[in-house]
User: What shape does this take?
Amino acid sequence: MTEIYVDADACPVKDEIIRVAERHALKTYLVTDGGVRPPGNPLIQLVIVPPGPDAADDWIADHIGNGDIAITNDIPLAARCVKAGALVIKPNGEPLDEKSIGMALATRDLMTGLRESGAITGGPRSFSKKDRSQFLNALEAAVQAAR
Assistant: This one.
């Protein structure tokens, strides 16, 4: 049975994930080091990990499996999930798979280097209604594909 794993810290689409999970009766794990309110549905489990830079990532990577769905903006975590056979979706709806994860990792490393050198000083663009809509479409498609 497909399960959904959410890197819940700073995830802007938690409500949307919960709605889709409830509609399809999918077990969902919101993984966080704190600050996320428990959803109140037994299908949606709040997993609180110890504070630390990779604690939530490690928990997700240790539990996710083939055919599961991961929601994350964290590219190294996405790579670990893809390697485990999971479908990965960024909160803006962009899917990450075996074909795209290498380029995503390379771009992340390049951007990190440019920010560290001062060549780029701004962050990502703000999250939009279009991103939210694209995410909902991508999550629905991933749920259908996983079944």
Q: What stands out?
A: The longest helix spans residues 129-146. The mean pLDDT is 89.
